[in-house]
Amino acid sequence: MPHTVKSAWIDLALSGFVFAGAAILLIGAQSLPAPRFEPLGSAALPRILAGLMIFFAVIVGGSALIRLRPSRTVGQTNSEPPDELYPQRAVAIFVALVAFVSALDILEAPFVPTATAFVAFAGFALSGWRPKVALICGLVGLILAFAIDYVLATFLYITLR
């Protein structure tokens, strides 16, 4: 099985698991009590998280389905890196995730710069260590961190440092 087809099936399986996790969150959120004093209620965060999970699962699953379509171009080369690079990337992402959570919890680092650095590093590692991608992911991470901080502070009354 070619590398592209294999990774597309893996992405489809991942997308299915994410859909299942989102369904579990939505089912669990139905049993939470209705809001009394706060504007959104206790079920808002699980529903928002489930919606984001479904959104990203659709993106990953859709791109996998596009890769599974038969190609009409003859002689197309596969420019993806070999399989032996993926374990190193996975370990790097795991170490970065542990460092991110530790920085927020133990060191009480500010959320926006810490989240920006994590997203930039994750994009850098997943792209095969390309600096241009790290810069783009850093900008996306900065926007995303500000958006998360704003939503949490404005709608859920959660203040991150």
Strand residues, percent: under 5%
Main pleated sheet: none
Rg (CA only): 19 Å
* Helix segment tally: 5
Low-confidence stretches: none
Query: H/E element string?
Result: HHHHH
Average pLDDT rating: 84
N-to-C CA distance: 48 Å
> How many strands appear in the DSSP assignment?
0
Name the shape in a single word: globular
Structural class: mainly alpha
In percent, how helical is the residue content?
A: over 70%
Structure report:
The structure is a single chain. This protein has about 160 residues and is mainly α. About 70% of the residues lie in helices and about 0% in strands. The chain contains 5 helices and no strands. It has helices at about 5-30, 45-70, 85-105, 110-125, 130-155. Helix 3 (about 85-105) packs antiparallel against helix 4. The mean pLDDT is about 85.
Blueprint of the fold:
Blueprint: H1 3-30, H2 44-68, H3 86-105, H4 111-126, H5 131-154
Helix pairs in contact: 1-2, 3-4, 4-5
Quick recap:
By secondary structure, the protein is mainly alpha-helical. It has five helices and no strands.
Name the features.
globular, 161 residues, 0% strand, mainly alpha
